[in-house]
Amino acid sequence: MAEKTVSFEEKRSNKTNYLYHQFDEDLFFPAHFHDSFEFLYCYEGKLKLSVDKNEFFLEAGDAALILPNQIHLYETVGHSKSYLCIFSTNYLDAFYPSAAKECAQNPVFSLDDRLYLLDDIQHSEDSYLIRSAFYYIASIYSKLPKMAREKKFTTLIGQVLSYVEEHYEENISLEDFSKRVGYDYHYLSNVVNDGLKENFRSYLNRFRVQKAIELLQRDDVQIQEVAEKVGYDSLRTFNRNFLKIVGKTPRDFRQEIMEEKYEETNL
After folding, report:
1. What's the pLDDT tens digit per position in 127-152?
2. DSSP 3-state assignment of 73?
3. SS3 letters for 14-52?
4. Alpha carbons 151 and 166: distance in angstroms, whole number
5. What is the largest CA-CA distance in the chain?
6. Quick check: 87 and 93 in contact, CB under 8 A?
7. What angle do CA 20, 23, 26 make, to 5 degrees?
8. What is the DSSP string of 58-102?
9. CA distance 237 to 34
10. What is the pTM of this model?
């Protein structure tokens, strides 16, 4: 199954009544942050969720709420099927002030017998019903053990992620960024490794590959051009990193996408 993606531009949106739905098989998404709330539900399998400096796991029946401007990433452990919802803060305007100050020590919880809430969020056109579903989720979250949010850490990691997002097409490095912001390179390297659970170069490659996945779903862009557009001077290096991260070559990935599109149009 082709990997579904959400652009970082969409993820950053905090427009009024912004509501985005995504269903995934074997979800993977690199570290990112945005001004909206994010809700994740695991239908099947197992997912690793990293939030700020901590790692958590979701199994079938588990849910998680990620607060605005928390650094987070997803990785599938073996296999997973999941639902992801990104929604603007106005849906939880009364809850938002406390969410800016403190967060759950562990954001994973169970909806128990309240799965109808997922249907309300996914399919209802009643804004009051959707809002009430989100408030029920916030109510569960508010009962979890809390800790203060580390604003300095989040701000610094956020600057790194923004730097990558804005300059991934260029020849960039953590050394260059450390000089730009005036931080010691070794200190910044430790912060990045702690926050992203990988080094800067590894994260940059994941980000570039994620962008390449979006471009490869178009049939009007050659693979060499895709490599150049996401910051690779060498097609060989691009192919090697793509294979390492996705598990197949860019050519094989595109072929799979084309076959899926063909099957869909001929049903």
Report:
1. 999 999 999 999 999 999 999 988 77
2. strand
3. CCCCCEEEEEEECCCEEEECCCCEEEEEEEEEEEEEEEC
4. 22
5. 58
6. no
7. 135
8. EETTEEEEE-TT--EEEEEEEEEEEEEEEE-GGGGTTTHHHHTTE
9. 30
10. 0.76
